[in-house]
Specification:
Order of helices and strands: EHEEEEHEHHHEEEHHHHHEEHEE
Shape: globular
Mean pLDDT: 95
Number of strands: 13
Largest sheet: 8 strands, mixed
Helix content: 25-40%
Number of helices: 11
Structural class: alpha+beta
């Protein structure tokens, strides 16, 4: 067992985030921002790779956020800076930027911010003003915790306010229909400007979650329900394990899974795999097994999606039944999380050795349930643990990593946090 204490990545407090972003803005742009806006990262409790299949997902917003100090300009120029790029400010023109693969392509993280303005203009909001913005984010990069969605959504609520679009409302009194429209624009930013074929779960969590709740998201129609998930009151905690394994959604693996699901839906004659009822799954798998090419792959991908949607539906019903999250209810919650990971490992084949070791070590150390979260192929895992056992479980995971020769993981304490909005 490693003698080193597990490393926890802290979340900046709202005051710390606002001060850091404002200070950077002043130093680089020698002016005062119009305000500071934020958007959280997310973890998904269950419902993985269901979003682009029209199914259900159950994310929470993290207390780890992207903070964006922004000032409206009187022209169409966008200037962006972060602590890592302060020596070279990104400068763009809203009249010339464009999607990935075009002459106006925007590189790296700037695509997630400038791209939101590009998308909003294509949604009918013409001649948006340019802006200067300074980004300070404490959402771990590459951890599968939606660091990119946090950037997009912080830009969305900031642009919404300074341009007077009237879509977001406030975190306390959100305009949910307007926020759903912002979600659509943030997804288009990720898909077209950044070239990552993600669904809308990440952006929905960042813009539409509620503090103390998980978000039941129907990814077909965008409807949401807020599901009680007050772990602190139950003496529980959600330990997030950042595996530090390489994580990327634009390396082809994610897109290949999505393409397989779309092909399976076409063979089955349905619009989306969410149209396959759990009771009809055996017959659907039998039909797919007769496909000329990639039959085994199509069977496995479809089996994961349909059973994962059913597991999500079961967990939502369980959390809404009014009983405390303990005893058999807690055990069943853990079983659903465990089954989700096994399905992702065996049928969707999107875990990796670091994720599997983290999940197994957490379970062995007493976690009630554990699973990978996010797109997979790296990124993070989550473990539902007793609040007084957080460090014990984290230490066990770190020890398992050391024995396997992996790079040390990092950890986060996750509590269901507030959605994107204005800080100051």
């Amino acid at each position: 067992m490693t003698n080193d204490a597990p490393v926890f990545a802290p979340a900046l407090s709202p005051q710390e985030g606002a001060e850091a972003a404002t200070t950077l803005f002043r130093e680089v742009f020698e002016a005062e921002p119009d305000g500071v806006w934020y958007a959280p990262g997310r973890v998904n409790i269950i419902g993985e790779h269901t979003d682009y299949n029209g199914g259900l997902a159950l994310p929470i917003a993290l207390p780890h956020r992207a903070h964006l100090a922004l000032r409206r300009r009187n022209d169409r120029i966008v200037r962006l800076v972060s602590p890592q790029t302060r020596e070279k400010v990104d400068v763009m023109d809203l009249d010339t930027i464009g999607p990935k693969g075009t002459p106006g392509e925007v590189e790296h993280w700037a695509a997630y911010i400038a791209g939101v303005a590009w998308s909003l203009e294509r949604d009918g909001f013409k001649n948006l003003p340019g802006f200067d913005a300074a980004l300070v984010s404490c959402v771990p990069l590459g951890g599968g915790l939606s660091s990119s969605a946090a950037l997009e959504c912080s830009a969305a609520v900031a642009i919404d306010e300074v341009a007077g679009l009237g879509l977001a409302g406030t975190p306390e009194e959100p305009n949910d229909a307007g926020r759903a429209r912002l979600v659509t624009n943030c997804v288009r930013t990720e898909n077209e400007m950044a070239g990552a074929p993600t669904g809308g779960m990440d952006q929905s969590a960042s813009l539409r979650c509620r503090e103390g709740h998980a978000l039941e998201l129907d990814c077909r129609d965008g409807s949401v329900a807020h599901v009680p998930f007050d772990l602190t009151a139950e003496g529980l905690a959600l330990l997030v394990i950042d595996t530090k394994a390489k994580h990327s959604l634009d390396d082809g693996q994610y897109g290949a899974r999505r393409a397989a699901c779309e092909r399976a839906a076409r063979i089955l004659g349905v619009e989306l795999l969410a149209d396959v009822a759990i009771g009809d799954l055996p017959g659907a798998l039998e039909r797919l097994s007769c496909a000329d090419d990639d039959a085994i792959e199509l069977v496995k991908r479809t089996r994961h999606v349909v059973t994962e949607i059913d597991r999500t539906r079961q967990l939502v019903a369980l959390l809404q039944d009014g009983r405390p999250l303990r005893g058999e209810k807690l055990a069943e919650t853990g079983r659903l999380m465990d089954a989700s990971h096994e399905s992702l490992r065996v049928d969707y084949e999107c875990t990796c050795p670091e994720l599997d070791v983290a999940v197994e070590a957490a379970r062995t150390a007493g976690a009630h349930g554990a699973r990978m979260t996010g797109g997979g192929f790296g990124g993070s895992a989550i473990a539902l643990v007793d609040a007084d056992a957080v460090h014990e479980v984290a230490t066990a995971v770190a020890g398992a990593y050391e024995r396997e020769g992996f790079n040390p993981p990092a950890f986060l304490d996750a509590v269901p946090a507030a959605p994107a909005g204005r800080l100051v």
